[in-house]
């Protein structure tokens, strides 16, 4: 169980195309490789994490992967829901809204 849910959007700029699915796929491959729990939606990917160091590692690896694909500039949007008093999950947050 995690102590934070991070909502992450990474947008490559200057690619010459309006298609982003290959970049989203590359970023989610990084998450799979790291073994973190995540859920991709239409505009953000939610990730369950325990610490900020893991988030930093994720960003570093995504950046390296997209740079290898020719991306020269990235725009990040990061929202962090952090709990110090209890566990926090993606499903738990969604369930509270859908009740």
Automatic annotation (TrEMBL):
This is Thiamine-binding protein domain-containing protein. GO terms for cellular component: cytosol. InterPro entries: MTH1187/YkoF-like (IPR029756), Thiamine_BP (IPR002767), UPF0045_domain (IPR051614). Transmembrane segments: none annotated. It comes from the Archaea. Residues 6-98 form the Thiamine-binding protein domain. It comes from Thermoproteus tenax (strain ATCC 35583 / DSM 2078 / JCM 9277 / NBRC 100435 / Kra 1). Belongs to the UPF0045 family.
